[in-house]
Amino acid sequence: xxxxxxVSALGKSFAGSGPAFGELDMTVRTGDLVLVAGGRxxxxxxxxxxxxxxxxxxxxxxxLTVGGHHSDLATAPPRTLAWIRRHHLATFDGPLVxxxxxxxxxxxxxxxxxxxEDALLAMDRLGVGQLADVALGRLRPAQRxxxxxxxxxxxxxxxxxxxxxxxxxxxELLGSWLDERRADGTSIVIAARPGSFSHEYATTVIQLSExxxx
Length: 214
Fold this sequence. Notes:
alpha/beta, 6-stranded mixed sheet, 30% strand
């Protein structure tokens, strides 16, 4: 089975604070769930943001293969990267970003690129369906994280990237949902702390410690 994401010698450094992580290699195939486990300051969140295109890597390559087409997310022009992020990648690494006056149901549907009905089903599943007609700007921070996770899991993207999803949702619910997504061919990368529920669902586990793959 061919790789959907092939990551080689990937690194990220920040001016004034040194490397977040470096020399990381990872292969994600269709239906895989790759767990990147690490504590605080391990670099796992920075890795997710590099894979999603939110951060520009300092070194290495991220080859995304979808429909026989190959793109290096580490070097893709901004317009190409924005198109890839919209159509092939779904990410949860913070609160949902949308105009504050936009209704939550509409914001989730647009972020996930699905029908509003499907977005509402995902929100119901996470217990936030009652927020569908509330303006996004009126949500509490925890609620904005919950609806962002709903958008990521409702997406039909080829790759889903999740940073500590159990911080806002029940692990048992997440586990069954992730199994469903893997069964339909979605590739998943989760960044989580040691002891995360996702260990029992992972096809591959990568350990990060102080920015180094161990």
